[in-house]
Amino acid sequence: xxxxxxxxxxxxxxxxxxxxxxxxxxxxxxxxxxxxxxxxxxxxxxxxxxxxxxxxxxxxxxxxxxxxxxxxxxxxxxxxxxxxxxxxxxxxxxxxxxxxxxxxxx
Length: 106
What we know:
By secondary structure, this protein is α+β, with helices and mostly antiparallel strands. It has helices at 2-34, 63-66, 69-99; strands at residues 36-41, 44-49, 54-59. Strands 1-2-3 form a 3-stranded antiparallel sheet.
C-alpha cells in the first residue's frame, strides 16, 4: 500500500509540474505577442511580433518606384525572414527559461 501511495504522489507531482509549465507558457505567449521585432533595408521596414505574426510593412516614399516588382518582392521576403528569425530566437530563449530541465533535449 505504501508503494501505491508513493506512486500516486509521484503522479500528482508530475501533473502539478505540467500545470505549472502550461501556466508559464501562457504568460510567455502573451509577452511574445506583445513584443515586436524589426528588419529594415532599402527603405522598407517589416515588423513582426514574437508570436511570429506580421504586424506591418512600411516603405519610404518612392521605394516602389525605385525597384522592379521582383526586387521589391524579394526584399520584402528577405526582410520578413530576418524579422521572423529574430522572433524565433527570442521565443526559443524565453521557452528555454521555463523548461529549465523539465523537458529533456531543450
